[in-house]
């Protein structure tokens, strides 16, 4: 995914009013699951079992927000800000596929015969995204802030997979296959945040400490779809309220080269099993009027789920432990005119 923008200020107002426009990712759909399926060797052969096919689940593309906003220094110690953004979709695709290498050898380990469902996912409608907040300096070295992100309504249209509740795990998942086009109506709740920043005396200790907490009431989340003409089905699940706790420390090497490390603890609307801890790292380098920022994060989540591609004729299978390793790396270029 990508992001970009342009910011400026008004010199005749002592730069108290700043404005900007930009584009940034809101929801990254990228997911690529590719499972090898291997058959059985004849008795007496001890090589690796032959590859007979693949189970494939792929999603790609992203939803972006495009808009603009401003910040205003209303009094020396207080700044307020507001931004308005609309949504655009970029190359949204969803696909599920069963690949059989040799159609004369349909192995029992495969979930079915050769099949490919899915295609483009379109954004039909979306609400306006509103972000607002303020910051206030407290003393010489500290600052507090408050932020609010409005709820979002999205209507997407596509096929291949649609949501349901898994009977065995009682968790939501995309586990049913269809060649019918569905209209999905999604309501994402609002989020509020409270932050604190403290800068130590940089003539002695060039260190900045950031603390932030975010709250989201996921009980207000909803996902409904129309499986048939004049019919609407709603995903029923008790999603929980969540808190995110974030902290980071930035150190200026020789008072010019920043290095930061952070930690994020996120509760999950699905329950304690899906809580995650994330490590963040970042730095920046100045080249004249240009600044290059490098940042990244990684985390690990482990949970229990059943096989999303059960073998032909299999009536029950043991639940499996699923381990997800997630990471992201971001490079940002800034140029000052």
Round the Cα radius of gyration to an integer and report it.
25 Å
Helix content: under 10%
Shape: elongated
Number of strands: 20
The first-to-last residue Cα distance is 26 Å
Provide mean pLDDT, rounded.
85
Structural class by SSE content: mainly beta
The run of helices and strands is: EEEEEEEEEEEEEEEEEEEE
Portion in beta strands: over 45%
* Count of alpha and pi helical runs: 0
List the uncertain runs: none
Query: Major beta sheet, specifics?
Result: 15 strands, antiparallel
Summarize the structure.
By secondary structure, the chain is mainly beta. The protein has strands spanning 4-9, 17-28, 31-38, 51-75, 78-100, 115-120, 122-126, 129-138, 142-149, 152-165, 172-188, 191-199, 207-217, 222-225, 233-234, 241-253, 257-266, 276-287, 290-305, 320-335.
Would you mind describing this structure in some detail?
The structure is a single chain. The chain has 337 residues and is mainly beta. 0% of the residues lie in helices and 67% in strands. The chain has no helices and 20 strands. The protein has strands at residues 4-9, 17-28, 31-38, 51-75, 78-100, 115-120, 122-126, 129-138, 142-149, 152-165, 172-188, 191-199, 207-217, 222-225, 233-234, 241-253, 257-266, 276-287, 290-305, 320-335. The protein is elongated and about 80 Å long. The two termini are 26 Å apart.
């Amino acid at each position: 995914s990508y992001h970009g923008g342009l910011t400026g200020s008004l010199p005749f107002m002592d730069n108290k009013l700043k404005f900007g426009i930009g584009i940034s990712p809101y929801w990254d759909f990228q997911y690529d699951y590719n499972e090898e399926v291997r058959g059985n060797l004849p008795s007496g052969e001890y090589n690796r079992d032959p590859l007979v096919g693949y189970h494939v689940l792929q999603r790609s593309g992203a939803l972006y927000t495009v808009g603009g906003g401003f910040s205003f220094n209303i009094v020396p110690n207080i700044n307020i800000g507001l931004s308005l953004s609309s949504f655009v979709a970029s190359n949204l695709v969803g696909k599920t596929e069963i690949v059989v290498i040799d159609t004369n050898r349909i192995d029992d380990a495969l979930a079915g015969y050769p099949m490919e469902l899915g295609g483009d996912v379109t954004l039909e409608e979306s609400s306006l995204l509103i972000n607002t907040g303020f910051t206030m300096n407290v003393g010489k070295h500290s600052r507090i802030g408050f932020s609010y992100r409005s709820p979002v309504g999205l209507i997407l249209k596509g096929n291949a997979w649609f949501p349901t509740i898994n009977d065995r795990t009682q968790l939501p998942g995309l586990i049913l296959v269809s060649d019918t086009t569905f209209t999905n109506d999604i309501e994402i709740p609002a989020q509020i945040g409270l932050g604190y920043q403290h800068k130590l005396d940089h003539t002695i200790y060039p260190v900045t400490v950031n603390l932030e907490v975010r709250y989201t009431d996921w009980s207000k989340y909803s996902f409904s779809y129309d499986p048939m003409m004049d019919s609407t089905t709603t995903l029923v699940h008790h999603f929980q309220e969540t808190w995110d706790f974030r902290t980071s420390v930035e150190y200026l090497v020789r008072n010019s080269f920043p290095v930061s490390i952070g930690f994020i603890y996120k509760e999950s609307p699905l329950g304690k099993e899906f809580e995650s801890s994330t490590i963040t790292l970042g730095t920046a380098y100045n080249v004249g009027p240009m600044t290059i920022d490098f940042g990244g994060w990684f985390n690990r989540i482990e949970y229990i789920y059943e096989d999303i591609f059960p073998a032909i004729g299999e009536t029950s299978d043991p639940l499996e432990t699923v381990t997800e390793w997630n990471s992201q790396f971001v490079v940002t270029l800034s140029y000052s005119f």
